[in-house]
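Q: what sequence does this backbone want?
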């Protein structure tokens, strides 16, 4: 899913993809990490890089109203 959406973004004239990193998705339990499937942050970033785009990660404990307990 991500490669086609990222390509469409580039084709539409964007030069960057901005996203939050929802840490409670990556660490569902204390010291238990999950970077599999759609949580594979490195694969996501490399896909953006391969399209020649910039990645802007919004890392932090606060994720506005889009996600609970992010």
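A:
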């Amino acid at each position: 899913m991500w490669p086609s959406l990222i390509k469409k973004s580039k084709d539409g004239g964007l030069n960057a993809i901005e996203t939050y990193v929802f840490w409670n998705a990556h660490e569902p339990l204390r010291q238990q990490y999950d970077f599999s499937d759609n949580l594979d942050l490195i694969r996501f970033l490399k896909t953006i890089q391969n399209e020649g785009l910039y990645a802007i990660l919004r890392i932090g404990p606060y994720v506005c109203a889009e996600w609970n307990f992010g």
